[in-house]
Amino acid sequence: MSAPPRPRTENRSRTRGPADPVRELMHRHAALCANAVDPLEIAAGLEAQGLTDRVAGRFRHRDVFGLAEELYARVPGPPSTVVRPPQAVPGAAPAQAPRIALHLLPGGICAIAALLARVWGPAVCVVAVPLTLAALLTILRAGPLRAPGRLATGGALWTCWLLGFAVYGERTMTALAGGQERVHAHAQGLFTPASTAALVAITLAPGPAAWCAHRFAVRARAHLAPSRGLKDFAGAVRPLLAGTLGLFLLAQVALLSAAFAAAGAPVTPAALAGPAALGLLLFTARLLTVHGYARVAVAATGTACAAEGIALVAAPFHRLVLDPAAVTAVACGCAALVLGAYALGVLARVSAHTHTHTHSSHQDLEQ
Amino acid sequence: MRIALLTEGGYPYARGDAGGAWCDRLVRGLSGHDFEVYALGGGGRGGRPFELPPNVTRVRTPEEETPHAHAAQAGRRRSLAIERFEELAGVLAECGAEAAGALADRFATALYGLADLAREDGGLPGLLRSEPALRALEDACRAQGVRPLLGEAGVQDVLTAAGLLERALRSLSAPWYDPYGEELAVADLCHAVSGGTAVLPGLLAKRFFGTPLLVTEYGVRLRETLLAHRAAGYSAPVRALLAAFHRLLAGEAYRQAALVTPGSTHARRWQERCGADRSRIRTIHPGYPGLESLAAPPESEGGDPTLVWVGRIDPAKDLIALLHAFAAVRRQEPGARLRVIGAPGPAGSAGYLAHCRGLAAQLFPDEAANAVSVGENPVSFEELGAPGVQELSEAYAAGDVVVLSSIVEGFPVTLVEAMACGRATVSTDVGAVREVIGGTGLVVPPRNPRALAEACVALLRDPERRQRLGAAARERALELFTVEQNLTAFREAYLDLVAHHAAAAAAVPEPVPFGCPAEARVPGRWTAPAPAWADLA
Question: Structure pTM?
Answer without folding.
Answer: 0.81
